[in-house]
Amino acid sequence: MKKIFIVLIAFFAFQTQAFAQVKKTEKNKKAKITDSVKWRAQHYIVNRDSAYADPRIGLKKLQGGNRRFVEGKSIKPRQNYETIKKLENGQAPFAVIVGCSDSRVPNEMIFDQGLGDLFIIRTAGQVSAAASYGSMEFAVLKLKTKLIVVLGHTECGAVAAAVERPENVPGHIVTLINDIKHAAAKSSHLHGDPVNNAVRQNVIEQVNSLRDLDPILHKKYVDGEILIVGAVYDIHTGKVEFLEETLLNLPKPKAK
Ligand SMILES: [Zn+2]
């Protein structure tokens, strides 16, 4: 009886050890994948300072972060006490995001970024007015941020309202509709979902109006000092699609 008891204890001890070993190996394997040069290259884990210095690298940093988010491999960078202390004397965000207020599009989460990375302006339908423009100009002039991303999203309620044009809209909501209705009308002849078509058109038009915005953004954009691009977040997949139409013929930085 005593012998059986000893054998049983030995068996359970071995099982526990083996289980711990498997867990350890899995953990090592996971660490190895994310540390590999290939994985890091595919997911654009670039130095934060390079992303701040060069908007094209900043753009890749956002694309890589979204890829990690979609694949369930978010690394949640710079989200700790150490970063709070590092930033207590100032900020240097590498991107301005002009996005929708929709609660399903939390910017730091979907781009897998952290404290001090993104300067965010959010209104429904990412409609901009004087205060939003001032915020962008502040980021560009004072914080030296060189990348502006207009981020729309599929199934946007504000855009849907501009497509449907309901009567007797209460309060200030009509401001949103008035700002988006042009994009909604312009995309109404397209095939496919009218709201999502209008979402894309709205982003493209908002990008164009920021590129034309005097006196600060327009000059910086044509001089190639800042990039202004557009993207759409898919609320079904979590994926951000940077719109090709806004990535073509970007002005190059002037030689100094
Ligand atoms: Zn929205």
Binned strand content: 5-15%
Average pLDDT metric? 90
Please identify the top-level CATH class: Alpha Beta
The total count of helices amounts to 11
Quickly list its features.
single chain; 256 residues; alpha/beta; Beta-carbonic Anhydrase, Chain A; five-stranded mixed beta sheet; 51% helix; globular; binds zinc ion; signal; Carbonic anhydrase
Textual characterization of the structure:
This protein is an alpha/beta fold and 256 residues long. Strands 2-1-3-4-5 form a 5-stranded mixed beta sheet, sandwiched between helices. Helix content is 51%, strand content 11%. It has one domain (36-246): Carbonic anhydrase (Beta-carbonic Anhydrase, Chain A, 3-Layer(aba) Sandwich). Bound molecules: zinc ion. Zinc ion is lined by residues 100, 102, 124-125, 153, 156-158. Its EC number is 4.2.1.1.
SSE inventory with pairings:
Elements: H1 2-35, H2 37-42, H3 48-53, H4 55-70, H5 81-86, E1 95-99, H6 107-110, E2 118-122, H7 130-141, E3 147-153, H8 157-164, H9 173-186, H10 194-211, H11 217-222, E4 227-233, E5 240-242
Parallel strand pairs: 1-2, 1-3, 3-4
Antiparallel strand pairs: 4-5
This protein binds zinc ion (ZN).
